[in-house]
Design goal:
By secondary structure, the chain is an alpha/beta fold. It is built from 18 helices and 13 strands. A seven-stranded parallel beta sheet has the order 3-2-1-4-5-6-7, with helices on both faces. It has a six-stranded parallel beta sheet with strand order 10-9-8-11-12-13, sandwiched between helices. This is Glycosyltransferase.
């Protein structure tokens, strides 16, 4: 049986994308996982990277002087992983490397057949809204891509826009595996009054979530909006909560555990998935919440982000706004009818299988099989 190593500098048990890889490959190969936290699956061997080690470059001296190789191999998580994996160099048949920060380590392992890279963001522009990141880290990320991506056997990323950019900038073919949710067999629930809207996700200021709250002014009795947010930036959720208290029909609710998320979304009629195009990765995002809405059999309202817009129009599961602002959201929500939303819900039901994780992971399955010569 072929030996596959799955590598990620994340907490594997709480990383849905990596967990899907593990669930897919554990029954097929002798899988070794490498990452933070305990063993993520009963049928894998696990190498745990010590808590408290860093997988992000912290040496400004290395970054400023463009000594990127030293910056990489000097990271404490990389040093720890290298020590833990020293006796596995040359013993694996393939490595599935998650994100650019694992690529040098994956290539150092010298798998017999090759490396597949799964790129969760467009790394050279991941935090481009932060000036210090653009100065210090963006050149380092471009170095990682420039030196490592041409050496991998195959690569995937999360949306067509990111795949095109990787191909254009680094000359490699990149396929798409979306952050789709597992297929669920849920009923289509009729829309009632008031219309129930939901936004889920991480509370980051560059997403301008205030616009969703402002969009609800004057819509009391017609629609309600709940925001279910994970904290990310100090004080931002508190500011959103204070604003929500001023607008009737808007509330913040506590997040639920990931396994309960689709069932929670199914309590609603429409998922609001609207981001301003403030960064390249946001512009080309296909976020988890879009696919969770499909499995929950809700409609969706999205902004003019091209990748989301294409998917929504192709499957008829919702509406694409002309702008990602409060005025556009207000007009769309004010004009919603039960009949329109019920049509979106039926379209989500029809698309649930095609847009499921089970369909998407076939691309990983084919890529790894090709590396292994199967």
């Amino acid at each position: 049986m072929s030996r596959l190593l799955i590598l990620s500098f994340s907490r594997l048990e709480s990383d849905p994308r990596v967990q899907r890889q593990i669930d897919l490959f554990a029954p097929r190969y002798r899988v070794t996982t490498v990452g933070f936290g305990p063993r993520p699956h009963p049928d894998v061997e696990h190498v745990e990277i010590p808590e408290g080690t860093r997988a992000w470059p912290s040496s400004k001296q290395h970054l400023l002087t463009r000594r990127f190789r030293g910056a990489y191999w000097g990271m404490s998580a990389v040093r720890a992983a290298r020590d833990l994996l020293a006796d596995r160099v040359g013993t694996m048949d393939a490595v599935l490397a998650n994100d650019t920060n694992t690529l040098p380590l994956a290539l150092w392992l010298r798998p017999r057949r090759g490396v597949h890279a799964d790129l969760h963001e467009y790394a050279p522009r991941e935090k481009e809204h932060q000036r210090s990141w653009r100065w210090f880290v963006a050149p380092y990320q471009r170095w990682l891509c420039r030196t490592c991506l041409p050496r991998v056997a195959s690569a995937t990323t999360v949306s067509p826009g990111l795949a095109r950019e990787y191909s254009a900038r680094f000359g490699i073919e990149v396929e798409v595996v979306t952050n789709a949710s597992a297929e669920r067999d849920l009923p289509v629930r009729p829309t009632g009054a008031p219309i129930r809207l939901l936004h889920t996700g991480v509370a980051r200021a560059n997403r301008h979530l205030e616009a969703m709250i402002e969009a609800m002014r004057g819509l009391e009795g017609h629609a309600r909006l709940d925001l279910m947010l994970m904290p990310s930036e100090p004080g931002y959720i508190e500011r959103l909560r204070a604003l929500a208290e001023e607008v009737p029909g808007v509330a913040l609710r506590d997040p639920v555990p990931y396994p309960q998320l689709v069932d929670t979304v199914a309590e609603y009629d429409v998922s609001l998935v609207v981001f301003p195009n403030t960064t390249f990765n946001l512009t080309h995002s296909l976020p988890n919440k879009l696919f969770e809405a499909v499995q929950a059999r809700t409609g969706v309202i999205v902004g003019p982000s091209p990748d989301m817009a294409e998917l929504v129009r192709e499957h008829g599961i919702g509406e694409v706004l002309p702008a990602a602002d409060a005025a556009a959201m207000h007009l769309q929500i004010a004009g919603l009818t039960d009949e329109t939303i019920d049509r979106w819900k039926q379209a989500s039901d029809a698309a649930a299988s095609a847009l499921s994780a089970e369909r998407q992971v076939r691309t990983w399955e084919k890529a790894v099989a090709a590396i292994l010569g199967e």
